[in-house]
Design a protein that fits this description.
Oligomer: heterotrimer
Radius of gyration of chain B: 19 Å
Shape of chain B: globular
Strand order of the largest sheet of chain B: 2-1-3-4-6-5-7-8
Low-confidence stretches of chain C: none
Largest sheet of chain B: 8 strands, mixed
Chains: A alpha/beta, B alpha/beta, C alpha/beta
Helix content of chain B: 25-40%
Mean pLDDT of chain B: 93
Helix content of chain C: 25-40%
CATH topology of the largest domain in chain C: Rossmann fold
Number of helices of chain C: 16
CATH architecture of the largest domain in chain C: 3-Layer(aba) Sandwich
Order of helices and strands of chain B: HEHEHEHHEHEHEHHEEHH
Distance between the termini of chain B: 44 Å
Structural class of chain B: alpha/beta
Strand order of the largest sheet of chain C: 9-11-10-13-14-15
Structural class of chain C: alpha/beta
Strand content of chain B: 5-15%
């Protein structure tokens, strides 16, 4: 199975922001959509604040490869402070998607040059921590970013994502996360966002 | 600028601070000439009590030994966050071997120094509670009973933190960890289990045993200094809150250590050859709840309805400590 | 029912369905999620009749498992790397006492230097401790192998370690089925030990055996362990999903075949598909070593590349030594490729280059380290020739290269 049959996502963030959970939930959502999915982290020992990466592959055939994602179709950045410090977009093709957790625009983040080379409608920023805080009381951006990713790429359905979130979380936490994810999904589905 | 000499009576209190004390009374941390044995740039979490404790202890030990100190470190958070290859935060000779053997490795280092006629150089071994009270206990006991010339420092954050907050022999009753969930009629770590390693050290009747916290810097440094004036097996047990594992705010680390001592749950004392020689009295006692409430590992005790019954059992432990060690001034 | 879940979680559920009665647990990365999940199940009652012991070391964990098993309880624990080595004495003891303990090894490198990432040095270092060693190629296999492991262990009275690549499998989410309780109950009867600490029938377990009988005891252990070569396939036949001992993929007509163990197999198969004329043989059973099956799978191959996830310092390949023995008398060329040590990713790109090198004849019978930084090691070897200094290589690499700050003060 060559890379054209698999959609590869790479998540970047810091320990404690739910990056690993994001990749897992995305894989569960894809599974619930009836597809094959694989998610795994790349990290060291338990430490808050350390840079963390996680990967997710989605396809319609069983996924056998297990190397880290070096040619992502989509990059999700949960913490904009990693920009310009870590090679967040390494391997991202010109048709790739990129999503950053930030209230600022792509230009304001100093990424205008990158934007010029890519498809504008595939690059987005979204204030996921703020949206999350509004809905859940805590600035954990992961569910919100997943909703945004679903809206941007349609690699998973928002309904499957909701089910995945509800399998992992319960009660008010689940409700808040689902609301944040749906809000982000709708936002990305609407007007220009880069 | 003219220096005005002012006499302060409450030398150990926060009100005074270092810069207003006479130089001789200031802590090593107040000195710009301090070694910074654990230099900045390490990867500890924000608010890490162990990083703080290790810096305090090692700088004091380096000063006390005139810079002639070798350190042996067990596997654990301290070792991991201080030595992310190819970098190291340590500014002194430092050896990491395994999880269980720091006391034995230190014994070996001390023996080598003796054999080489270099006994002006001193040895400090250090590890977390997991490496000390559990997997390292046999080696520690051996070092104690041979009276090897090592100061062993345990930084106690009350669980295996580096592997994801699992219960250790130092985890206090009813604390939530990844292997002692807060579920069931007796949520969290079981009461009646666990080891009191300072008392085990006392039972070995070694020259010096002391406990301390990162809240009392003068006290901690003084104990390290005192320990270094002696030869033989010495043990220092330091309470170091862990924001990640305890679920507390990073800014609360020192405050929580102070509350632990003031609640009576963490008795602070010194002992010589198995006999208590001094205690840090509790100046203003707090109920255990005040210490436990800011820690999410105890959140289940304060949910609706609060577990008054369990809090009372924890309070009983504190009461017993206070009576046993004579922690409250009459 | 097929679900998407974490490898560790799936293993924990599978083990729970095997109704373990004593689970001693000691944390070590990357096994922690397994024992935590089992502990949680014991706590919430979904795993009943099980004592979960948080012990003070891995040596204590295996020791407690030994005691539990000798007293007639089904015992299980999990470890990795340093922890496996810390319980090494107990591993030999368990197999020598014929105790059917099941152990998950979340494969991780062994220090010094300390390293928490995946390779197979830990379990490979214990290949002679008398345990059955099974290696999972993916998480479904990991789940199924644990169930089979209990059955196999209790059938033969030999302990079994199930090796699962740390992080790569333990922390991976992928689709799989955890067998239902009734399926496991039908497959795995209650533990019925032949010999147990019993007040009504006292025996002394663990006697000293002298020269007059030790050889025979060891011979019988070797014999019994080797019975797994037939017992395992028989048991697998009765299981709900196919499980192989030696999996042969695209070997028909393939001149070049890669032999490997564990999760890297998936990536290798992807590359084999690209070439079209390359086969992949994946060993699930490593101890006892399935010589006949390996020889059969590799029968017609001219070039055999053994992709190792560990090595024997001063000697070379571990698996390749056994593979060479299996192929003795044939004309196959066997090369040893050490890959992915300490968690270095084994990439398709590197594997493509490797297979191309093999097919061009360049590889021969060499010992090769995949993706080795030749520049770094050559410089270091040069420096080592010039001066005599002791100490760890990790430090030498920096110190001798004059990296600023490698000296204090």
């Amino acid at each position: 199975m060559s890379d054209e049959y698999v959609f590869q996502v790479r998540f970047h963030g810091r320990g404690g922001q739910g990056v690993v959970t994001s990749a897992e939930l995305l894989s569960v959502a894809a599974f619930l959509d009836g597809r094959e999915a694989q998610a795994f982290p790349s990290f060291g020992s338990e430490r808050m604040g350390a840079p963390v990466m996680a990967f997710c592959r989605i396809a319609d055939v069983p996924i056998r490869v297990r190397e880290p994602v070096t040619q992502p179709d989509a990059v999700v950045v949960a913490d904009a402070t990693l920009l310009h410090h870590v090679q967040l977009f390494a391997g991202l093709g010109l048709e790739g998607y990129a999503l950053i957790n930030s209230a600022r625009s792509w230009d304001e983040l100093g990424l205008a040059e990158m934007a010029r080379r890519h498809y504008l409608e595939r690059l987005a920023t979204i204030p996921a921590s703020d949206i999350a805080r509004r809905h859940t009381g805590r600035p954990l951006p992961n569910a919100c970013l997943l909703g945004a990713l679903a809206g941007l790429t349609h690699v998973v359905s928002i309904d499957a994502l909701e089910r995945a979130v509800r399998e992992r979380f319960t009660g008010a936490v689940a409700d808040g996360n689902v609301a944040a994810a749906r809000a982000a999904y709708d936002y990305l589905g609407s007007a220009a966002h880069a | 600028m003219a220096v005005q000499s002012v006499k302060f009576y409450q030398v150990g209190s926060r009100a005074v601070g270092n810069r207003l004390l006479e130089e001789a009374l200031r802590t090593e941390q107040a000195s710009p000439a301090r070694r910074n044995a654990l230099n900045s740039g390490h990867r500890a979490c924000q608010g890490c009590g162990e990083a703080l404790g290790a810096r305090y202890v090692l700088d004091a030990a380096v000063r006390a030994t005139g810079g002639k100190l070798l350190a042996v470190n067990a596997t654990g958070c301290l070792e991991v966050f201080s030595t992310p290859y190819p970098e190291s935060s340590w500014q002194l000779p430092w050896l990491h071997s395994l999880f269980a053997n720091a006391p034995s490795v230190a014994s070996g280092v001390a023996a080598a120094l003796k054999a080489q006629g270099r006994d002006d150089v001193r040895v400090l071994a250090q590890g977390g509670d997991g490496g000390t009270v559990d997997i390292g206990l046999a080696c520690l006991s051996g070092m104690f009973e041979r009276n090897d010339d090592v100061l062993y420092v345990c930084y106690d954050n009350e669980a295996y933190m580096n592997t994801g907050v699992q219960r250790s022999g130092s985890t206090p009753p009813f604390a939530r960890t990844a292997t002692t969930e807060a579920t069931g009629p007796e949520p969290g770590a079981p009461i009646g289990q666990g080891k009191d390693l300072p008392r085990i050290a006392l039972a070995h009747e070694i020259p010096y045993v002391a406990t301390a916290t990162v809240a009392e810097l003068h006290d901690l440094e003084a104990k390290v200094e005192r320990a270094m004036t002696m030869r033989g097996a010495r043990y220092l047990h330091v309470l170091v809150p862990c924001p990640l594992g305890w679920g507390s705010a990073p800014a609360d680390t020192v405050r929580l250590a102070r509350l632990a001592q003031r609640s009576g749950l963490f008795p602070v004392f010194e002992a010589s050859h198995g006999e208590i020689t001094a205690v840090l009295p509790i100046r203003s006692r707090v109920p255990v709840a005040e210490y436990l409430r800011p820690q999410r590992r105890y959140a289940h005790l304060f949910a609706e309805p609060p577990r008054i019954d369990l809090l009372e059992r924890i309070q009983a432990i504190a009461d017993r400590n206070i009576a046993r060690y004579g922690l409250q001034e009459a | 029912m097929r679900r998407q879940l974490e490898g560790s979680r799936a293993i924990a559920e599978a083990v729970a369905r095997c109704r373990p009665q004593v689970v001693p647990a000691y944390p070590i990365t990357p096994q922690t999620h397994i024992v935590e999940a089992i502990g949680a199940m014991v706590r919430n009652g979904s795993l009943a009749g099980c004592e979960f012991l948080t012990v003070e070391s891995e040596f204590a964990a295996m020791s407690a498992a030994i005691g539990a098993s000798a007293a007639g309880a089904r015992a299980y624990t999990a470890t990795a790397s340093q922890g496996l080595l810390y319980m090494a004495e107990a591993l030999f003891n368990a197999s020598g006492l014929g105790l059917p303990i099941v152990l998950t090894v979340a494969n991780r490198a062994v220090g010094a230097p300390i390293n928490i990432w995946n390779d197979q040095s830990d379990s490979m270092s214990q290949r002679d401790c008398g345990w059955v060693q099974l290696y999972a190629a993916d998480n479904q296999a990991a789940v199924d192998l644990h169930v089979v492991a209990f059955a196999l262990a209790e059938e033969l009275s030999v302990p079994v370690m199930v090796c699962v690549d740390g992080f790569v499998l333990t922390h991976a989410f992928e689709p799989l089925e955890v067998p239902e309780q009734d399926a496991v109950d039908a497959f795995l009867p209650p533990y019925a030990p032949r010999q147990v600490l019993d007040v009504d029938d006292p025996v002394a377990i663990g006697a000293m055996v002298g020269p007059e009988a030790f050889t025979e005891v060891r011979y019988l252990s070797h014999y019994q362990l080797s019975q797994a070569l037939t017992a395992y396939p028989q048991l697998c036949d009765g299981w709900q999903r196919p499980l192989s001992m030696v999996d042969a993929y695209r070997v028909d007509g393939a001149d070049t075949v890669v032999v490997t163990l564990g999760s890297v197999s998936g990536t290798v198969k992807e590359v084999a598909d690209e070439f079209g004329n390359v086969g992949v043989v994946t060993l699930t059973m490593f101890r006892p070593f399935p010589y006949a099956e390996v020889r059969k799978a590799l029968g017609a191959a001219k070039r055999v590349i053994v992709l190792e996830r560990a090595l024997a310092p001063g000697a070379g390949g571990i698996v390749s030594a056994d593979v060479r023995a299996a192929l003795s008398g044939t004309l196959a060329e066997v090369s040893t490729v050490v890959a992915g040590l300490g968690g270095r990713a084994v990439t398709r790109a590197a594997l493509r280059r490797l297979v191309a090198d093999a097919m061009s004849g360049w590889l021969g019978e060499r010992l090769v380290f995949l993706d080795l930084r030749d520049d770094l090691v050559e410089q270091q070897i040069d420096r080592m020739r010039q001066r005599r200094a002791s100490g760890p290589q990790a430090l030498g690499l920096l110190r001798d290269a004059g990296i600023p700050g490698s000296r204090i003060g």
